[in-house]
Design a protein that fits this description.
This protein is α/β, with parallel strands linked by helices. It contains 10 helices and 8 strands. Helices cover 38% and strands 19% of the residues. The strands form 2 sheets. Strands 3-2-1-4-5 form a 5-stranded parallel β-sheet, sandwiched between helices. Helix 3 links the parallel strand 2 and strand 3. Helix 6 crosses helix 7 and helix 9 packs antiparallel against helix 10. The longest helix is centred in the middle third of the chain and has 16 residues.
């Protein structure tokens, strides 16, 4: 992988990169299209990274279909689909992890202990091996994008990080590889995430600027649906992820909700001036 990149960089080509865990959907493909627009050569990685899954999470049942992924990637014009092998990437004796002090102590980081340490470590490893000029990440994983931007700044990676808006199904459900695990009824229930975000947006438009009130409404709405279990619903500053009490500037409303056994996340920027 590295010699392929070195070779193209020596030729003056720029390399853009989209890391994924595979089971590709339109959200991934949209990142890839953006990536292709930004660089001359495009690399994706497909790797279900064990170090970002906690005990009892879905590492073993994470959906996978490499043949289908390769076909989709080829159709989009991906030059390399890099699929590192777990034993090569984490050989015996592997003992170095990247950590960050502040951003991981919010949102998903609170219920998924060690998750972002695993994410930063794998992304740094992938950056070192792929050696891209540009990397594209989805805003669906808003916290992840913020943490990667911070890591790239702090550790002097010479890589431009691009955020890409959330891609949704026609009915608004944020696309996710995990959606494939939902039963038809749960798929309908899953819409309560985006619906509650839209309700918050319209309450804000009607001058409800109290974050606690908006979060309370979202909790009530989501809990009125079967098989839901809220991990968190937060309204916070999009840069620091610190809680915001009164919405007087654009804020991030983010949530994680289990529907059955499937954990879904979604988010939206709420802007009082819109
Ligand atoms: P994953 O395979 O879930 O690790 O995702 C790989 C990349 O795709 C990450 O940067 C995600 O944020 C991004 N991504 C996943 N789903 C979506 C979506 N619905 N819209 C935009 N980006 C997404």
């Amino acid at each position: 992988m590295t010699s392929w990149s070195d070779c193209h960089r020596r030729d003056g080509q720029s390399i853009s990169f989209v890391p994924t865990m595979g089971f590709l959907h339109e959200g991934h493909l949209s990142l890839m299209k953006e990536s292709k627009r930004l660089g001359n050569k495009m690399v994706i990685s497909i790797f279900v990274n064990p170090t970002q899954f906690g005990v009892g999470e879905d590492f073993d049942s994470y959906p996978s279909d490499l043949d289908r992924d390769f076909k989709l990637a080829e159709d989009i014009g991906v030059d390399v689909a890099f699929t590192p092998n777990k034993a090569d990437f984490y050989p015996q004796g592997f003992d170095t992890f990247i950590d960050q002090e502040k951003l991981p102590n919010h949102l998903c980081g609170l219920s998924r202990s060690g998750h972002f340490q695993g994410v930063m470590t794998i992304v740094a490893k992938l950056f070192n091996v792929v050696n891209p000029d540009i990397a594209v990440f989805g805003e669906k994983d808003f916290q992840q994008l913020a943490i990667i931007r911070r890591m790239v700044k702090d550790l002097n990676f010479n890589i431009r990080i691009i955020g890409h808006p959330i891609v949704r199904e026609a009915d608004g459900l944020a696309m996710s590889s995990r959606n494939s695990k939902l039963t038809p009824d749960q798929r309908i229930t899953g819409l309560c995430l985006i619906t509650s975000l839209k309700k918050a947006q319209s309450s804000l438009k009607n001058n409800e600027t109290n974050a606690a009130a908006l979060m309370h409404n979202a909790v009530e709405f989501i809990c009125s649906h079967p098989e839901t279990e809220i991990d968190y619903i937060r309204i916070c500053d999009p840069d620091t992820l610190d809680d915001v009490a009164e919405i007087d500037r654009p804020v991030l409303m983010a949530m994680a909700v289990k529907v059955g056994t499937t954990r879904l996340i979604d988010n939206m920027i709420l802007n009082p001036d819109e």
